Known about the structure:
Blueprint (H helix, E strand, L loop, with lengths): L1 E7 L5 H14 L4 E7 L10 H14 L6 E11 L2 H13 L4 E6 L7 H6 L2 E4 L7 H19 L8
Helix pairs in contact: 1-5, 3-5
Amino acid sequence: MNIKLLCIGKTDKQELQDLTEVYVKRLQFYTKFEMEIIPDLKKVKNLDENQQKTKEGELILSKVQNSDFVVLLDENGKQLSSVAFSEYLQKRMNTGLKQLVFVIGGPYGFSDEVYKRADSKLSLSKMTFSHQMVRLFITEQIYRGFTILKNEPYHHQ
């Protein structure tokens, strides 16, 4: 199973990019993982919140295949422990899924069209994090999930 992380906009903090890259590299031992950055929209001052979500949604949907299992990282999504998340990953792999796509939206969230396309919604916390931090957190959790599945000593209970 391939895993893709789709993100809106670039990370402007080199430290966060470097930390995220640590887990991206580690994940290569377990699965094919790619992070795809959708460039920030231009001229957003002329767009209201819904117009911006709609335009970002069109870009997100253009990067998703019909056969992909799409998971939105959304504040209203289901919260899982790290162990439960590893089981979530295993369940997706057991179905013979070709590609699992995690999506981090823009500053205002997702358009209705993206919500309709989603197969699942997960929340990393009830707290709000910057989109750049969410990239690091989900990448680390995917890595942690694979180490749990392989009974490796990274995760402690």
